[in-house]
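User: Please fill in residues for this 363-position structure.
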């Protein structure tokens, strides 16, 4: 009798543990350098890595962690404010089935895009197709750990973020070295992106993604790199127009998918207007600089990355851009707050506050 009771208790405890796995809501993030938290740092041949100071200076211990900014990503901040754990990079050596069940996974890779050909000059990077393939491998691990029914429930209750698109323009279509630049025009290239993205999002739905958000593009023509490559130093109108058209098409695609895919709640997060407003009127948002990077080589432009020989601005919290491509922690927080407001996400008042952003050695 005692043995039967003990076995019954053991079975009950095991069932509770499995149910606990199912009930834990985590994130699975697919993206590029705006969301990368360390994958590219493990790709030894990649030319797009954030593995040197001063990347990560305002995050944790201040050492490089794979984020292409001084602090947090937009996905970090939204997850924090929703009370969700921060998912580790797929290539993090500590990743295990238990870590996945407790925290999710971030597959984002600097230089990656919706299209497989995007970012080829960076040599190594995970495209969105590759990231989805890695996610399929993750699912196999979890099914083996907790069984198929529990795994299906776990993945269907998780949150999904897809943050791709900027590299498909900046590091593909707008660069003559890529065949897409002469194989398409502006309209047909965006159609190509939407057709590809539609198939990828349907694939994620077939793998259990029910609650999914796609990040829209900001005014890409106003990033420091695009400005410095123009003759006037102003924003590049055509690049911004491409971003607006991508967002318009993406919003329509997500609306259609959400209506037609079973149990799908797919949302498109568009923060273009607020970022454009910040760039146009930075002082109204507490910024002093919206056209050049905080981390640079001074007057030597463009400085394609941030390295120990770079010069930091005096106050990182006052700069919209961290380097030639990427927003600062302060700008990412503003973008995240706008997306939270637009999409009606619940805000967790216990979310971590940003670290101080004052340079250790002001100029």
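Assistant: Residues filled in for all 363 positions:
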């Amino acid at each position: 009798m005692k043995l039967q009771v003990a076995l019954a208790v053991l079975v009950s405890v095991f069932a509770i543990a499995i149910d606990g796995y199912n009930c834990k809501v985590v994130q699975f993030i697919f993206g590029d350098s705006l969301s990368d938290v360390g994958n590219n740092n493990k790709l030894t041949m990649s030319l797009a890595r954030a593995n040197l100071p001063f990347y990560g200076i305002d995050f944790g211990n201040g050492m490089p962690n794979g984020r292409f900014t001084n602090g947090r990503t937009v996905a970090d901040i939204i997850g924090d404010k929703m009370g969700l754990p921060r998912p580790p990079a797929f290539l993090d050596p500590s990743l295990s089935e238990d870590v996945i069940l407790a925290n999710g996974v971030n597959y984002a890779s600097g230089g990656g895009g919706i299209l497989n050909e995007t970012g080829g000059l960076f040599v190594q990077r995970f495209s969105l197709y590759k990231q989805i393939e890695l996610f399929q491998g993750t699912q196999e691990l979890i099914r083996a750990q907790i069984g198929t029914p529990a795994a299906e429930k776990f993945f269907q209750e998780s949150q999904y973020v897809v943050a791709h698109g900027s590299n498909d323009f900046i590091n593909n279509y707008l660069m003559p070295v890529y065949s897409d630049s002469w194989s398409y025009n502006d309209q047909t290239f965006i159609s190509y992106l939407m057709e590809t993205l539609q198939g990828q999002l349907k694939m994620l739905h077939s793998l259990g993604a029910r609650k999914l958000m796609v990040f829209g593009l900001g005014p890409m023509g106003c990033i420091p790199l695009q400005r410095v490559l123009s003759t006037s130093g102003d924003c590049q109108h055509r690049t911004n127009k491409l971003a607006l058209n991508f967002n318009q098409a993406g919003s329509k695609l997500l609306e259609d998918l959400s209506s037609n895919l079973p149990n799908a709640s797919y949302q498109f997060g568009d923060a273009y207007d607020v970022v454009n407003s910040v760039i146009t009127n930075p002082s109204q948002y507490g910024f002093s600089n919206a056209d050049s990077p905080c981390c640079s080589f001074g007057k030597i432009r463009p400085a394609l990355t941030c390295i120990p020989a770079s010069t930091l601005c005096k106050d990182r919290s006052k700069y919209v851009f961290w380097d030639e491509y990427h927003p600062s922690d302060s700008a990412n927080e503003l973008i995240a707050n706008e997306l939270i407001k637009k999409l009606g996400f619940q805000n967790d008042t216990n979310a971590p506050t940003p670290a101080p952003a004052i340079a250790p050695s002001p100029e």
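For context: The radius of gyration is 21 Å.
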